[in-house]
Amino acid sequence: MNFKEILQLSLSALGRNKMRTALTMLGMIIGVGAVICTVAIGEGASQQVASQILALGDNMINIFAGSINQGGVRLGSQATKTLTVEDSNAIQLSVPTLKYVSPGVGSRGQVVYGNQNWSTSVRGVAPSYMLIRHWGMARGSVFSDRDVNDAADVCLIGQTVAENLFGDADPIGQTIRVQNLPFRVIGEPVQKGQTPWGGDEDDVLIMPYTTVMKKLAGVNWLQSIVASADTSDDISVAEAQISSILRERHHLRADADNDFIILSPTDLADAQEQSGRVMTLLLASVASVSLIVGGIGIMNIMLVSVTERTREIGVRMAVGATEHDVQSQFLSEAVVLSSLGGGIGVMLGILGSSFLSSVLQWPTSIPPIAIVIAVAFSAGVGIFFGYYPARKAAHLDPIEALRYE
Q1: Residue-by-residue pLDDT tens, the chain, 405 positions
Q2: Separation of alpha carbons 178 and 112, rounded Å
Q3: Exposure letters 345-355 (e unless 16+ CB within 10 A, then b)
Q4: Distance between CA atoms of 332 and 336, rounded to whole angstroms?
Q5: Please, are residues 140 and 186 in contact by the beta-carbon 8 Å criterion?
Q6: Residue 233 carries which DSSP code?
């Protein structure tokens, strides 16, 4: 018999007991559907976090003051005063693979306009910071290098701050007070939204770093330096060069710890991707148990089918069917059962993922390879668990099979 005839016989045999066939496929349907849903949730979450991290900046490299060991105590980020404006200048001059470099210093302040006030963070940076972050302007313009040199009383106002102080009014050109000092609003960046860690990117005032250092924070050191590499491939090389420059400038011995920390969103994205991959694999592995249970159900039903159809098998062999024909028929029935269950499970998994995404607002993404693997795996389960019943049917003695009641 050819493949088409075997398939037709298999579908005909399965159609005789529609309810039993449907219940047997249920295990595969649930298993494949659960795998598709878990993979979709894990992949969607990983992609969302990775996109948020990479949206933080253009091939960005962050250098933070900290991680120095004092008296056996290892200080964390921004716990030391080791970074300076001169360090930032040296990095910009000595690392050729960097496009932009911006010093960074922060503070907090109560912002007042008229009878409205709002507590927010104040970020002191260079104009290049907005280029590093790919942060465009909704209204107004960015302050200039001359404003940095003059420590000018100007600022960019985040949209969260603008909404709480000005409502729907245009803040450009207005004067606000921060720590009782007047600042003129010259620009409003476009909305950034939340960070991967849940913070509000738009709840901020952005000023020249010299203004924050001299007039608000009262410091002569930097909390951070932000840089942007030419390409993502240049990040690791730039990090090594930055580390070498800072160690030399800070006169650190060869066996001394760094008094700075270098991080990039790419590192965070890679770590998150690896974590998401492990979690997705774990969830998919748990869901795959249903596939094994479904496969055992298929084996059980096929063994029952062999027993019920023993006389039929004897008749077929008596009229010329070979052992290969009988084995192929029963094996194809098992594969059809598992494949149909897998196909329906894929559709239910896609529908379930869409439901979670639309109703529960969970990000989901189904890689095409996951669908291919799910269907192939379900067919493989049919072959694995259908082989023994098919082999048993093929090795029945025709004489004994014909006498079977």
Answers
A1: 555 666 676 677 677 777 877 887 887 888 888 888 878 877 777 777 666 666 666 688 999 987 544 444 444 445 567 899 999 999 999 999 999 999 999 988 899 998 999 999 999 999 999 999 889 999 999 999 999 999 999 999 999 999 999 998 999 999 999 988 999 999 999 998 776 566 788 999 999 999 999 999 889 999 999 999 988 788 889 999 999 999 999 988 888 888 899 987 666 666 666 766 676 677 667 666 777 777 788 788 778 777 777 777 777 777 777 777 777 777 887 888 888 888 888 898 888 888 888 887 777 888 788 788 777 877 887 788 777 777 777 777 666 656 555
A2: 7
A3: bbebbbebbee
A4: 6
A5: yes
A6: G
Q: What is the CA radius of gyration of the chain?
A: 33
Sign for the pseudo-dihedral over CA of 64, 70, 72, 73: negative
Nearest C-alpha neighbor of 241 from the set 101, 99, 95? 95
What lies within 8 Å, CB to CB, of 400 at 6+ separation is 314
- Give me the phi and psi of 121, to 5 degrees please: -90, 150
Tell me how far apart the alpha carbons of residues 81 and 89 are, in angstroms, rounded to a whole number: 17
Does the pTM exceed 0.90? no
d(CA 363, CA 237): 34
Amino acid at 299: M
Angle between helices 323-359 and 368-394 (to 10 degrees): 150
Sign of the torsion angle spanned by Cα atoms 183, 187, 189, 191: positive
Closest CA to 280 of 82, 36, 91: 36
The two tokens of residue 23 are 């219940």
Distance separating alpha carbons of residues 103 and 219, to the nearest angstrom: 13
Residue whose structure tokens are 């503070």: 107
Angstrom distances, CA of residue 83 to CA of 80, 91, 128, 190, 293: 8, 11, 18, 30, 60
Distances (CA, A) of 176 to 118, 171, 295: 11, 9, 70
The residues near 75 (Cβ < 8 Å, ≥ 6 apart) are: 66, 67, 68, 69
Question: What are the C-alpha distances in Å from 45 to residues 57, 342, 361?
Answer: 20, 25, 11
